[in-house]
Amino acid sequence: MGNVVHYCRGSSEDALCDVLDNAVRLSGGSIPPSSLLVLGSIWYASGEFSNPTNSKLNSALVKPVRLNPSSAPLQLNAGDYMRVHFNPRRFPIPPSSITVVRSDENLGYMVVDKPRGLPCHPTVDNAEENLVEMLGGGEEGRYLGLPSRLDTDTRGLIVLASDKKFASYFSRLLRGKTEGEVGVYQPNGGGVSNKALVTKLYRCCVCVGEEGVGRLEGLKGEVVKHWLEPSIRAPKVFREEKGEDVEGKEWLECRLRVLEVGEVKGVKEGLGLVVKEGTRGIVEVEVELLTGRTHQIRGQLSQLGYALVGDTPYFGEGEGEVEGALALECSLLRFPRPKAVRFGEGEYEMSRKRRRAKKRGEMVEEEEYVVERDEEGEVKEWLEFKLERRPWV
């Protein structure tokens, strides 16, 4: 993915471009330094970062920064540190493939239909080809936050925040969803618990073997629970029983509900669908995500014996990249319309952290968003977005 260049020339100063030209030539890379700067594939820190005589505390304060085209005139000193990703991962998705479903500048949010193959946020080796950047998040003075995420290979609905109040609001809703009660989604808005205020429905296409879909059919309407091993590795490890703590970290509970199981269909050649060995057919499944864990739907359905079409890392054949089209999309998204309240009104008091910041003279928000409820305590208005069915490839 990248190479580390520790610059320690004997001369006192050299131009960044000269050093990069030599490094690219020696590495055999095909991307010129100017393009690497545009992509954000180069990180830099002064010599203090890698100075072994520095204390851990001091070196932690000197963090690498991502370079860009404006960094071209930079002069390097002996001992300076650079990390250069000569062959960054590329995500050649045209901006025209991104559909803005709803944009509300007054409330400060945007709902987008994200295409498959595009990361939501910058990666360590590519800061240019991602959803936030393509929607203008890198523009000076503009805020565009990601209170929720979708995997790179997953398509469908995602919420972005153009206002920090909404970002904070939606993050609180998601925490309540993961930590709170299990509600039951109903199209008319009823029957959802007070804590589980964000509804996410996913459509996916799974591989079916000789055993058929009997087990899935039997789970319709039920909450399926697994445990996720605490690890940064992928593919993730999901188990039916909670495992022992890993380096002091607990396994995380994962819950989803199987809503619909379609008819088994044959696998047609030439459609670009990659299926697990031994697959006798494929079937479309709709699930409701009740907790938001990394690779949760992919891992839980694979653990049940129904790996997603295209999801080779979870076929049980070793690690690897997703091949073909991953048949997974967020098809429905629903959350309460927020209401703005000023601190000091009724029960809404400014947090201690904000009060201290304000006392120091820092700029703090004087209001925040809350869920607006009627006299019976029910959500006053729901915002719901839904995608129509469409081909997987």
Write the layout of secondary structure elements.
Layout lengths: L2 E4 L7 E2 H12 L5 H7 L2 E4 L10 H6 L3 E2 L8 E2 L4 E4 L14 E6 L4 E6 L16 H4 L20 E7 L2 H16 L19 E10 L5 H5 L4 E6 L9 E2 L12 E10 L19 E9 L6 H8 L24 E9 L1 E5 L9 H8 L7 E5 L10 E5 L7
Parallel strand pairs: 9-15
Antiparallel strand pairs: 1-6, 2-5, 3-4, 3-6, 7-8, 8-9, 10-14, 10-15, 11-12, 11-13, 13-14, 15-18, 16-17
Key structural traits:
393 residues; alpha+beta; Pseudouridine synthase; Alpha-Beta Plaits; 4 domains; 10-stranded mixed β-sheet; 4-stranded antiparallel β-sheet; 8 helices; 25% strand
Brief summary:
With 393 residues, the chain is of the alpha+beta class. The protein contains eight helices and 18 strands. Strand 7 (99-104) and strand 8 form a beta hairpin.
Describe the structure.
- It is a single chain.
- By secondary structure, the protein is an alpha+beta fold.
- Helices cover 17% and strands 25% of the residues.
- It has 4 domains: 82 residues, no CATH class; 88 residues, Pseudouridine synthase; 134 residues, Alpha-Beta Plaits, CATH 3.30.70; 50 residues, no CATH class.
- The strands form 4 sheets. Strands 7, 8, 9, 10, 11, 12, 13, 14, 15 and 18 form a 10-stranded mixed beta sheet that branches. A 4-stranded antiparallel beta sheet has the order 1-6-3-4.
- A hairpin with a 4-residue loop joins strand 7 and strand 8.
- The longest helix is centred in the middle third of the chain and has 16 residues.
- It starts with a strand and ends in a 7-residue tail after the last strand.
